[in-house]
Automatic annotation (TrEMBL):
<dbReference type="InterPro" id="IPR000297">
    <property type="entry name" value="PPIase_PpiC"/>
</dbReference>
<keyword id="KW-0732">Signal</keyword>
<dbReference type="InterPro" id="IPR027304">
    <property type="entry name" value="Trigger_fact/SurA_dom_sf"/>
</dbReference>
<feature type="domain" description="PpiC">
    <location>
        <begin position="153"/>
        <end position="248"/>
    </location>
</feature>
<keyword id="KW-0413">Isomerase</keyword>
<protein>
    <recommendedName>
        <fullName>peptidylprolyl isomerase</fullName>
        <ecNumber>5.2.1.8</ecNumber>
    </recommendedName>
</protein>
<dbReference type="InterPro" id="IPR050245">
    <property type="entry name" value="PrsA_foldase"/>
</dbReference>
<keyword id="KW-0697">Rotamase</keyword>
<dbReference type="InterPro" id="IPR046357">
    <property type="entry name" value="PPIase_dom_sf"/>
</dbReference>
<feature type="signal peptide">
    <location>
        <begin position="1"/>
        <end position="21"/>
    </location>
</feature>
<comment type="similarity">
    <text>Belongs to the PpiC/parvulin rotamase family.</text>
</comment>
<dbReference type="Pfam" id="PF13145">
    <property type="entry name" value="Rotamase_2"/>
</dbReference>
<dbReference type="GO" id="GO:0003755">
    <property type="term" value="F:peptidyl-prolyl cis-trans isomerase activity"/>
</dbReference>
Amino acid sequence: MKKSYFALALLTTLISGSLWAKTLVTVNGAKIDSTEIDGQVKILQSQNPQIPDSPALRQELTERQIMTTVVAQEAKRLKLDQSAEYKKAIADARAAAKKDGADKQATFKQQWAGFENEMLNRAFIAHTLRTNPISEKDLQTAYNDFKKFYQGSYEVQLGEIITRSRSDAEKAIADLKAKKSFKTVATQYSIDPESKQNGGVNEDYVNLKDLEQGAPVIYAAIRQLNKGGYTASPLEDGNGLFGVFYINDKRAAKIPSYEAAKNGLGNQLQAERIDQAVETLLRKADIKPAN
């Protein structure tokens, strides 16, 4: 499934008002300035100082800002901000801000604009799901497709050893060949703190069909392995890390009943409809990068 477009808690704008702000892009005539992205970077770094300020991060934030701007504009066009429910939510939030004294802060105007943008996005999501509800027939069709896709498949409980060098990964493989336990080897060589605690074995199982789609390189390396098997050579991720993968367990996948799968499938279908609605808006939008 596609990543959510609505991680809006991370996207609240804190526009600094710098005289050096420059327009990055216009969205249906509305400007997105560099100071908006500056503010979002500061928010992320205040929550996690390990996040580096990079062109890739700024590009991602700009793309998300474009999406949420387009959605907010559509919500206004549909007059969703005129509903009694929306007005009450805004009034309650304004009253809470006033009570806490937040409305006296220097950045309140910018923070409030971000909050309103978030509320408009939520209103559009609710409108999309209300006007395009998931029917029982939709759910049954999705279940039949789900059942057909996973029928006869297998799932595995993977162990992994992550190292910073090929030589360490090869030493780990040599120790496995020498019949040392995977837990012992993972504890010795893996740089992942969690792996050192759990012996390198993930608690959850992953279906091989999901692994084939989501991590084809790992799938190709382990698909023929049975329980107790491990990759004979290290896998490199392209970022200087090397992995050794181990099959702690392998079993036939159990297909859940329709009733058991129903809620999860419903959530997935709702997410897909939201994504489709957003994609339609983006295709129609007049998005112009700054010169």
